[in-house]
Amino acid sequence: MEIVDRDWVDLYCWMRNGSVLFRVFRDREYWGLMHEMLRDFWCGSVVPARQVVAAED
């Protein structure tokens, strides 16, 4: 929702016993927290790992 700038999204879940539709609303406070955590993970884990792999080539 943040990427496409939408306030809500419909999430359709299909199961063998039936299906259900959820409307999920945007939560900017939650996204702010997640963005910080994802940035820390990317910079602290993904980037260093990519550098190690690139150095091995």
From TrEMBL:
Protein species of origin: Platanthera guangdongensis
InterPro entries in alphabetical order: NF-kappa-B_Signaling_Reg, PDDEXK-like_dom_sf, Restrct_endonuc-II-like
Full protein name: Uncharacterized protein
Gene3D superfamilies according to UniProt: 3.90.320.10
